[in-house]
Amino acid sequence: MTTEPDATAPPKDYRLLVPRDWFRIDLTQDRWRAQLKTFVDHQAEGKNVPAEIKQETWATLRNTAEAGVRAGALEFFLRPELEGGGILPASLIVSLIPRTGGLTPRDLRTTLEAKQRQNPAAVEISTVALPAGETVRVVGPTTLDLYIQMPGGVGYLALAFAVPLSGVTGPMRRLCDSIAESLRWIV
Q: How confident is the model over 77-106, as a mean pLDDT?
C-alpha cells in the first residue's frame, strides 16, 4: 500500500532542474568565493576581456552573492551571456525565506505591490499556481522573482532571476519559467 506525501508537512529539501550550462555555486559552503572566481576566470579566458571588466564582474557577482548569503540564499546559478565584450552572466539565486507570522501569498503580493508603487521598474506583480505551490511573481525589465509558498506554512523559497544583457523576455523568460515549474518538494 502506498501513501501520498503529506502536503501539509514541511519539506526536507527541494529539487530544481537547471540546465547543465549554468554554473552552480553552493552558498552554504565557505568555498563559494573560490567557485565564483573560477567562473569569472573561465568566462574571461581567451576572450580578450580587459582586466577592469573582469574585476568589475567579479566584484558585482561577489556583492550579489554576499547580499544573498545575508538574506538566506542557498544556491547561486550563473549562465554566461557574452555581448559587447562583457562577461556579466544571467543568474539565479535560490533563497529560503522563513515564514514570520501568517504571511499568505495574497498578503505577500499586497506588500510587494505597495513596494512596487515606489519602484516603477517592477512592471508586473501576479499570483500564479506552479506545481510546487502558490507563487507570487514579480517581473521587471531584467529580473524575474518568484516566491513559492512552501508546504507546512514554513515560509517561501525565492527564485530570483537576473538577466542583465538580454532581459527577461522571449526565450529567456520561457527558460526561467521552465526552471521555476521544475521545482519539487522532497518530504
A: 79
